[in-house]
Amino acid sequence: MAKRNAKNSWTPLQIITHLGALFPLVWLAWDFWQGQTALLINPFQEATFRTGKAAIILLMLSLACTPVNTLFGFKQVLPLRKPLGNYAFMYAAIHFLIFIVDNGLVSNSLNLWAVYEATFEKRYALVGFAAFVILLALALTSNQWSMRTLRKNWKRLHRFVYTAGVLAVIHFIWLVKSDIREPLIYGVLLTIMLVLRIPAVRKWVVNTRQNLTRGRQAAASSS
Ligand code: HEM
């Protein structure tokens, strides 16, 4: 999934990223195996919550890579954008699959009309679905062949990852019944990341950071 470094081996950061991204899935499987209470009482809801949370966190982390490089000049995070985005898609796909089974499985056969109705009758499910469609398109085109074929359009298409982020946050805000603090935190973080992408802001941050580094280096060499 991720590009390897020049020696064709994983960097520690890449290893941590892959292990961390797979952790929620392993944890879910483990809890299921162990018969954890929440999963016994309401397995579909609990699994939906967990996979939804993993999807939004990984999507946010994927979106955070470029701003982290802008703020701290930490280039090592840039190759993590793609695997993190793909993992976000993986959890969103499992999340949707659980939703399909939960809403469409009627007496051992899959009723797609029931899935369609469940998706379109609730506004939060509809925006979640829109976010999922974007993540699907991005995952399908996150390969060298699509990059070569789509050229400039590839970049244009992959900018939609921000739209997916906004839709995922709206999905979360709309589905919570009372306490919207958690989805709002994602919303604030997403807004900061979007602001940092504005070319003028980005240029100012990079210049300020470079000036500070030069100042520190000059002070260190004169002392
Ligand atoms: C096909 C699209 C989707 C459908 C039908 C869907 C449906 C749902 C449902 C039914 C719930 C539980 C609501 C409840 O019981 O109160 C939920 C929760 C959630 N979903 Fe989705 N979702 C979709 C896509 C997404 C995507 C793409 C993301 C993130 C990238 C996402 C993130 C979340 C989050 C964060 C939660 C709440 C988890 C929590 O409260 O701990 N969903 N979704």
Structure description:
This protein is mainly α. It has one domain (12-205). The protein has helices at 12-34, 37-41, 43-72, 81-104, 112-121, 123-140, 144-150, 152-158, 161-175, 181-195, 199-222, and strands at residues 105-106, 109-110. A two-stranded antiparallel sheet has the order 1-2. β1 and β2 (109-110) form a beta hairpin. α4 (81-104) packs across α6 (123-140). The radius of gyration is 20 Å and the shape is elongated. The protein binds protoporphyrin IX containing FE. Protoporphyrin IX containing FE (HEM) binds next to α3, α4, α6 and α9. Protoporphyrin IX containing FE binds at residues 45, 48-49, 52-53, 55-56, 59, 88, 92, 95-96, 99, 119, 125, 128-129, 131-132, 135, 168, 171-172, 175.
Write a concise keyword list for the protein shown above.
two-stranded antiparallel ribbon; 11 helices; mainly alpha; binds protoporphyrin IX containing FE; 223 residues
Which sheet architecture does the biggest sheet show?
A: 2 strands, antiparallel
Could you say which overall geometry the principal axes of the C-alpha atoms support?
A: elongated
Rg computed from alpha carbons, rounded to a whole number of angstroms? 20 Å
Count of spatially separate domains: 1
